[in-house]
Amino acid sequence: MSATVADNNNNNNDNICANCGKGEESSVSLKACTACKLVKYCNRECQIAHRSQHKKQCKKRAAELHDEKLFKQPPLQYGDCPICFLRLPTLRTASTYKPCCGKLICSGCAYAPVYDNQGNEVTEKTCPFCRAPISKSDEEENERIKRRAEAGNAEAIFTLGHFYADGEYGFPQDYDKALELWHRAGDLGCAAANYNIGIVYDNGEGVNVDQKKAKHYYELAAMGGHVDARHNLGIDEENADNIDRALKHLMIAVRGGGNDSLKTIREMVTIGHATKDDFKKALESYQAYLDEIRSDQRDKAAAEVDEYKYY
To answer: The whole model's pTM is what?
Structure first.
């Protein structure tokens, strides 16, 4: 079989090298093109030799595979509260990280009374999840966060990155250290860390501005459920006149609780980039998000803590 025939048939025979046409033997294991998965090769030499014929097809299929991942409905940005099991609001101030147990707790549960096994209200301030005493100082809290970070907790590593970026809570301001920590957290699946890395490259905070890298990390964050990263991608696509792609991103962001994306879709209707039906669907998606996160307990917490507003 010639290389051309193998390529035109999309290498329907999985056991044939797309370049030389040799079949898979016991001594030779064919390896698929890592970008498109459409063809296989005996070795790197065959892959290089076939590159000029395969490049266009490979690039097209790799882009399709990338979009399948990019526009797939992502996981929830923060998951569910481990106490009330309701979806955690997208707004970060509506939950709090507990380094004693490594959990994100919704503000409703964080502000609710804690009871012992006999049903008596516990007056001592403790973690609502693990019942550990609340840290009495920033130093004690920092030590807990450091221990969690050393144990590989992504949220703790991400939080330390913030402390170094802002020079807060006794940590020196160190952008390089912050970026290193966010890379570690991102590798562990922290979408917020990847979003922060995207912001760093987008704005040139301690690094050279690099829009390509910014987009890469925004995409990683968006695929991990980060709503603001998804919104940024939507805005970039609209600015590039890729309206269909922009709407896809913004609709996903709205379903995740993106109020800014909802406003953007409304503005797109006024300039003819979206339809009234698009906005109606966006409103319905946003209402569904609000219904999933609302509870009486969270409403009470919202009334007590001014900055906690998730709707």
So the answer is: 0.85
